Amino acid sequence: MRKTYTFDDVLLVPKYSALESRSQVSLQSSLDDEKSLRLPVISSPMDTVTETSMAVAMHSAGGLGVIHRYNTIEEQSALVGESYYAGVDNVAAAVGMTGDYMQRSEHLVKAGASILCVDVAHGDHIMMRDCLFNLKSNFDVHIMAGNVATLDAFERLSDWGADSIRVGIGGGSICSTRIVTGHGIPTLQSVFECSRTSYDTKII
Predict the structure, then answer these.
(1) CATH label of the domain that carries residue 55
(2) For residues 10 and 149, what is the distance between their CA atoms, to the nearest angstrom?
(3) Number of domains in the chain
(4) What are the pLDDT digits (tens) for 145-178?
């Protein structure tokens, strides 16, 4: 049995700083060549977390909110439209990888979504390959996919066309995936392993 690490197992070593103010620190990151974040924080596409108000708040703070998919196509599209017209530059919306995801994606993109997030508990799945192929073939938007926990899975989704990949399974305080299924590794370990990739795909 190998040893893995959680965030609680790791501390950062204090270093000398020549910065005179915290305002001089830049946390800017990017999803792709056109989409940047002043704050590298993305809110979860859960029905109790991200709708229009959170998407707008995350945008104002410099981050990104992913509007959840646990509603009708019309309801989710309305949330996307509200966010777009509220001034959110890059509206992100979640879809599944089966059922109505293509129809849902079409409505979401028409409503203003420029990022589609394939939001499933286990992204390292053959149906994800077909889903990513269909989305990339039909929509000229950023495709975020996940979740995955290993380097092999990360590189598989990269090969299948994902622009960015959500790494970590069951790491949230309210998420019960690891407990219920008995599958997963600590999120820090997942990020560490996936960061060893030679691919340019962004780790989320």
Answers:
(1) 3.20.20.70
(2) 19
(3) 1
(4) 999 999 999 999 999 999 999 999 887 766 667 6
Helices (H), the chain: 52-61, 73-85, 101-111, 126-138, 151-159, 177-181, 187-194
Catalytic residue among 117, 131, 175, 194: 175
Q: What are phi and psi of 65, to 5 degrees?
A: -110, 135
Which residue segment(s) compose the domain that 141 sits in? 36-203
Inside any domain, residue 11: no
77 class by beta-carbon count within 10 Å (0-12 exposed, 13-18 middle, 19+ buried): buried
- Residue 5 within any structural domain of the chain: no
131 as an active site residue: the answer is: no
CB 93 within 8 A of CB 80: yes
pLDDT in tens, 33-65: 999 999 999 999 999 999 999 999 999 999 999
